[in-house]
Design brief:
The two termini are 15 Å apart. The protein is elongated, with a radius of gyration of 22 Å. The model has no long low-confidence stretch (mean pLDDT 86). By secondary structure, it is mainly alpha-helical. Helices cover 95% and strands 0% of the residues. The chain folds into 2 domains: 54 residues; 38 residues. It contains 3 helices and no strands.
């Protein structure tokens, strides 16, 4: 019974530890975008013009790198979960 309570506590604790900083970051980013919208839109327009001039080869490469990084993160989460389950099952024996 103690293990279930500990797991529930850790789940809530980790959720809060992740959610609070991400929420603060999102609020800060929203405030920054609101204050600097004109400069951001000008930079995006300039970037789009330069991109159209030089081509999109490097943009495709960056997308592929992002996809691979995402897959690595997913595999890491799966590996950590499997390790945790195996460790807990060995402790319960």
């Amino acid at each position: 019974m103690k293990t279930r309570t500990k797991v529930q506590f850790l789940a809530v604790a980790w959720t809060m530890m992740i959610a609070i900083p991400v929420t603060v970051l999102a609020l800060s980013a929203t405030a920054y975008v609101t204050e600097n919208l004109i400069q951001i839109s000008n930079a995006i327009t300039h970037f789009g013009q330069q991109l159209a001039k030089f081509g999109t080869d490097w943009l495709f490469a960056s997308e592929v790198v992002g996809l691979i990084a995402g897959q690595i993160i997913i595999l890491a989460v799966v590996a950590i979960t499997v390790y945790s389950v195996r460790k807990e099952s060995k402790q319960s024996e």
